[in-house]
Structure formats: C-alpha cells, structure tokens
Amino acid sequence: MNAIGQDIPRRHGHAKVTGNATYAYETDVDNAAYCALLQATIAKGHVTEIDITDALALPGVLTILTPGDVQKLAPVDNPELAVLQDNHIAYRGQIIGAVIADTSEIARHATELIHLSYHVDDHDSAFTADRDDLYTPKALVTGAPADTTTGDVDTAMRTAPHTIDHTYSTATNHNNPLEPHATTALWQDDTLVLWDSTQGVHAVRTDLAEVLRLRPDQVRVICPYVGGGFGAKGEPHAHVVIAALAARALPCRPVRLALTRAQMFTLVGYRPPTVQHTRLAADDTGALTAIAITSTSPTSAMREYVEHAAAPTRMMYAAPHRATRHRLAALDIAVPTWMRAPGECPGMFGPEVAIDELATALGIDPIDLRVANEPEVDPETGKPFSSRNLVACLRQGADRFGWADRAPRREGDWLVGTGVAAAVFPAFTNRATASIRYERGHYVVEIGAADLGTGAWTVLPQIAADALGVPLHLVDIGIGDTAYPYASVAGGSTGTATWGSAVLVAAETFRDKFGTDPTEGDEAEGSHDTGPFNEHYSTYAFGAQFAEVRVHADTAEIRVPRLLGVFAAGRIINPRTARSQFTGGMTMGLSMALHETSSLDPRFGHVINHDLAEYHIASCADATDVQAYWIDEEDPHVNPLGAKGIGEIGIVGTAAAIVNAAHHATGVRVRDLPLTLDKLL
Ligand code: MOS
Questions:
Q1: 86 lies in a domain?
Q2: E strands, 106-244, in order
Q3: Catalytic positions, written as ranges
Q4: The Aldehyde oxidase/xanthine dehydrogenase a/b hammerhead domain covers which part of the protein (predicted)?
Q5: Whose CA is nearest to atom 4 of ligand 1?
Q6: What is the average pLDDT across 387-416?
Q7: Where does the pLDDT of residue 252 fall: very low under 50, low under 70, confident under 90, or very high at 90 and above?
Q8: Which residues approach ligand 1 with their CB closer than 6 A?
C-alpha cells in the first residue's frame, strides 16, 4: 500500500477540462452585480475632479465608488491595499474608481462616462542601471542582506589569467495565468465571504480582515480551484479590497469582479527587469578564484519589491573571493511582485551564461567546468548541503541528452547547437495545520491549502493514505477554504512540503490516538512549522537544463526542438503531477528565453503591449520536445516528508541553456533576453 510515488491522475482533472469545475468568478450566487474598475491615465499626480453624473445616469448602474468616498481603511503594510483613500496617483493604471452595475458590460461602459480632471506631476518611469539615484535595499524577502562580500574580488579579477566581465539583462515579464484574477464578494450581516482566485485563502483573509477592520472570523475566503498564479496571486491585490467595498455598498447583493487581460499588466505585479553585472575569475584549470554579481532592478515608488537575482550566486559555486549586490531604482511605475522562481529565475541567467563564456574561453566542457567548481559546503553560510546532486543531474542529463560529440553542425539551412545550464531553488517550508476526521468509513483531510492546477488536491491524499496505512480511495480531502485549518500560501515551492508535512503529522497523531479501527467522528490535528530542520543544513533543489537550438542561416529564425531537464528535488510524491510541474516550468523558461518582454513606455509610465496578442508567450508549436527526469533523492534533513518543492526550479536555467546553445550554433553571444532573431544577425 504505497500511494506515494504512484502516477495518480489529478482529482477534478476531468471536471476542469470539461468546464465543470467552478472557479471564483463563476460561483453560483443569486442576483450578482458586476464591478468594473476605473484606472488612472497619468503616471503621477492627483485627481482634481471626478464627475460621475453621466455614468450614474446610465440604466443599470447601481453605484460608483470614488476616491475619498469609501470607508476609512486601516493602515497596513501594503499600500496597494489602501484603495480610494485619497485622490493621489502613484502609477499609471492605479485604481481610482469602480462602477457597480447589473451587467459587466454596463459597468465597463459606465467607466468611460466618468469625467476626470487631473493635476499632473512630472513622473519618472525610465529604468537604467546607471541612474545616479540607485539605492541598496535593507534586505531581501528572505531576510538575507542585500549585499555580501568575502575576500577581494577586484584584486582577484586583476591577477587571474582568465576573467569574464559582462553585463547580462533580463526583460520585464508579466505573470499571465490562464484565469485572470477574479473575486466574487458577498456580505452576509457582518460577515464577508470572498470567492477569490488566490494562492492562499488564509493570506487573503488575514490581509482583508486587517485592512477592512474586521475580525478574521468575519472573513471567509473560498477558492477550490485556481487557473494558475505564478506568484501574482500570492497575496491579495487592490481589486480584492474593491470587490469587498463594492459588495458592502450593495446590501445583500453579491458582486463579481474579474480583471481584464490588460489590467493583468498593471494591477497584480510582474517580474521586473534585471541588469546583472557579472564577473568571474579563474585559474588555468578552470577553478574559480572570484565570482561576483551586481543586480539592478526597478521597483515602484509606491511599494518596494526586491528581485533578489544576486542571491543564487552566493551558494552556487566555490570561489574564495565573492561579492553579491542588489540595487534598486524607485520609479513611478506599477508594483512588481513574485513571478515563478523570483530571484533565482533571472538570477541564474547572467551567471550561467558567464560560466559558459568562461568554458569557451578555457576550452573546457561547460559541464566539467561546473563540476570542477562544486563547493564542499554552502560557500556563503559554511553549512553542509542537506543534499546536493547537481553533478548527478549534469551527468545523467548529459547521457540522456546525448551531450557527447556535441560539435556544432549545419543541417541544410539550419545551424544546430547545444547548451547546458544549472538550476537551483531553495527548499523551504512554512506553517500549516491539517485535520483528519473519520466519517462514514472515509478519512476526511482538511487543510486551507491551495491548488493552482499543480496537484495539491491529488498529492495530499497520497501522503495521508500512506501515513494512515489505508487505501487511497478512502481518503477525502478539502482544501481552498478558510473554514479549514491555517495553511501557508502556495508559493516559494513550499506547498507540498509544508502541507504534506502537516498532513503527515496529523495522520500519525490520528493513528496514535485511534489505531487502525477508528469510530465515526474520531478526529486529530497535526501541524508543521519551519522548525529546526533548516538550522544545520543549507537546503536547495538542483537541476541541469539542456537545450538544442536551431538557427536559420539566412533569417536567424530560432527554434528549440529539444529541452531536457534532470532535477534533484527530494522525494517525488506523484510522477505525473511532478513531470507536469517540471515541463511547465521549462516551457515557461523557453517562453522567457525567446518571447516574453513587456515594453514600458517611459513617456507614459505603462506597459504598452498589455495583451496576449502583443505580449508573446510560448505556444505548443514552440515546445515540441520537453522532457523532465529526476534523481531518486533521499533527503532526511529537509523536512519530515523529504520533499523539496518543484513548482519553480523547472524555469530556472532554461533561458541560459537556450542562449548558450544559440551561441554554440552560431558563435554569436547574446547577453540580453529575450533572444530574438535580430540579436543573432
Ligand atoms: Mo511563486 S512566484 O513563489 O508563487
């Protein structure tokens, strides 16, 4: 009886693909009204006049929310949530009003009938890495310092026989989950119910209760299904507060609010661009003597977000002289946020291309060069790695991919090359509680977790079944509801490891209390916290990404016929959902490499290609052969489950592998994403 490790299809998979699963916007409520957002069309200043007469006169319009005309919200850490508190505008696209109407069409139309006057201030939305007002953030999101220095990189660079000193850059990328952010809000007496598309129902409850001056038990958040999030749904954004305020304005009438695709490019965060000044110094054998990176990004003047792209360089390779730095420019732009593998994803672009450049310069195979620079312990902390199987990933990947005999070749009109890059992502856990109740012969697990389409519905019962020692079909589960015990956000690749560890403890407690023959109503709880597990070890998942790239000799059209990744991510609970996480991440990495770039026009302060016609993402035709494998890795130190998290590592390193392969094919070294054909000509 071993459910863990089984290739189990997703629970509700059929309901989802047949359109029968109910998402937040589709919640079955009576007599719903619809909310449309009014957005600022200037980048900085304030609203001087707002005339809603014509909009209110439109038949079907119920009410309009305007700046200063809503309840006084509580001051909270996140200024994004302080909606409509005053007439100040901090970025173009900021919400400055909302119309509630009988239909979504009427609501949207009415927003166009609102007449606005502005006082316009000069704005500054132009990001460059050589601005003279760059500043050093206080800390990274992990609490780690913004800058680290060991030894003397400058001297090492001056004295080493081989150095790499280049600037690499990644583009602004926008999270574009299939399901846009959406909320259905309903007030029942003094209780607020939100069906919200979110990565964490408890996080939404905590934040909304605080900002609306409610007790947490007055807010219930429900979200059984999520059509993707990638970090943009990792915390509530302004529109969720608007939905709550709109519903409160209409007693007993629920309100639906769904963001348009264009609004997804303004209101819910994005991955800011990075400019990575990367330096390597090495001796004749390829042993690194220095490794250094300064990563510079923009953030919003409204709220600081640090893209911690210099962080992975701290632990990736051994070198006696090291320096990592983060610099920010605070601009009049929308607020950036987490996007799949924040920090590591962009941060493993520059250094992994630089390593490839060093390998080329030294005439050493890029895999051998990486192996030669494996650290014994975490170079930053001095702690041992709980497990580190990067070398095994590189070796197995090389075998599977056919890395040997990799001379670049020409096939007809196509130049063909191959490339490799390493991947890394931290293995953390968070806090969660699960309950298990015996009911009509079934074991009912409840936990306020979220399933972004990734498989939590499916893998948590597998974990429970094994720990209880019962067949999988006897385990039922409820997730995505604050009525269930507290669980952390589905973010940072911590979901399965955190919630699974709580389920494990709950199941063991249940067995200890009730044995193997429970009676109706028996119930037990179990919790997991980021306990002592990480104190003594440095905990990361690793991977190796391989790419084949073909470039047309005349037009420089780029194709990626093959991607292959091998990962070491601890215990894999379900190979089917795991493979889909890995290949999904790799495909998103391919998309980042070849297509994705949000163009911000500094004259206006907003992203101009704000739809999926202009913001290109990889299609099925781009991703022809994407394969993921993993090492059977046992890690007793990382958490009770031995799982490291797999949601993000698949995107890490993919773009570097593709750029390295393009260089191998053509001899042209591109250091700026996306890799478009004009850069190869
Ligand atoms: Mo992920 S960017 O931690 O939701």
A1: yes
A2: 115-120, 148-150, 162-170, 182-188, 191-196, 219-222
A3: 648
A4: 18-122
A5: 231
A6: 97
A7: confident
A8: 199, 229-231, 234, 338-340, 342, 491-492
Question: Given the CA of residue 647, which atom of ligand 1 is nearest to it?
Answer: 1
Burial class (CB in 10 A: 0-12, 13-18, 19+), 2: exposed
**Same-domain status, 569 and 584:** yes
Ligand 1: which atom is nearest the Cα of residue 230? 4
Which range marks the domain in which residue 75 is found? Answer: 24-122+176-265
Tens-digit pLDDT profile for residues 522-559: 999 999 998 655 789 999 999 999 999 999 999 999 99
Look up the ipTM and state it: 0.97
Cα 489 to ligand 1 centroid, rounded to whole Å? 9
Asked whether residue 136 is assigned to any structural domain, the reply reads no
Laid out side by side, the sheet with 523-528 consists of: 475-478, 442-446, 432-439, 523-528
Q: Which of 271, 337, 340 to mutate to test the pocket of ligand 1 (most atoms within 8 A of CB)?
A: 340
List, for residues 473-523, the tens digit of each pLDDT value: 999 999 999 999 999 999 999 999 999 999 999 999 999 999 999 999 999
- Whole-number Å distance, alpha carbon 289 to ligand 1 midpoint, is 33
Say whether the peptide bond before residue 298 is cis (omega within 30 degrees of 0). no
Domain of residue 183, CATH code: 3.30.365.10
Centroid of ligand 1 to alpha carbon of 338 (angstroms): 6
pLDDT, tens digit, for every residue of 287-325? 999 999 999 999 999 999 999 999 999 999 999 999 999
Number of domains in the chain: 3
**Is position 140 within any domain?**
no
Ligand 1: nearest atom to the Cα of 489: 4
**Span from the CA of 222 to the centroid of ligand 1 (angstroms):** 20
Give the number of other CB atoms < 10 A from CB of residue 501: 27
Element (H, E) at 595: none
